[in-house]
Design goal:
This protein has 163 residues and is an alpha+beta fold. The protein has 4 helices and 10 strands; from the N terminus they run H-E-E-H-E-E-E-E-H-E-H-E-E-E.
Length: 163
């Protein structure tokens, strides 16, 4: 059944300029990482270790390193419970915001030896996982991307400026 002309007139696209406030949450490296046995982890066939987390008002997004035969082969991040799939516009915005914050993710994840990964784990830019919080029209979102993987977001409480 075809839409009526009147119904078609009630749907339209609108471009509007709005200020978007962006914050880069700090990555919290777990204090226990410095006590990990690099030699033992280098010999294990496959294991996942918790490295740290991005803290947001909604949840902690924990980052895990997947280790296979002495190499960190990938990174996995916990998702929040109310994950919003990022459409192409939202994903493009997040990538632009990360770039502007000099936190852009460049290229694909490249496996590296456990020893090298753990030496770099405190510098989240080097391990290619980044998150941002942004507020637009009074709604705040917490979005993350690992490597060249998909952007994932969750709606959270607004960012409150600290006095």
């Amino acid at each position: 059944m075809a839409k009526s002309k009147k119904a078609a007139e009630n749907v339209f696209a609108l471009r509007h300029t709005a200020e978007v406030k962006v914050a880069v949450p700090e990555f919290q490296l777990l204090s226990s990482v410095k006590y990990l046995d690099v030699e033992a982890l280098s010999r294990v066939s496959k294991v996942k270790i918790d490295v740290g987390f991005f803290k947001s008002p909604c949840c902690e997004r924990h980052l895990r390193a997947v280790i296979e035969t002495g190499m960190v082969t990938s990174l996995e991040m916990d998702s929040c419970s109310d994950l919003i799939p990022a459409n192409s516009d939202l994903a493009a915005f997040v990538k632009t915001a990360l770039k502007r914050a000099r936190r852009s993710v460049t290229g694909k994840w490249k496996p590296m030896p456990v020893k090298d990964f753990l030496a770099r784990a405190g510098n989240i830019k080097e391990i290619e996982t980044n998150c941002i919080e942004f507020t637009i029209f009074g709604h705040t979102f917490f979005c993350c991307q690992t490597g060249d993987g998909p952007v994932s977001c969750v709606h959270i409480e607004p960012i409150v400026a600290k006095p």
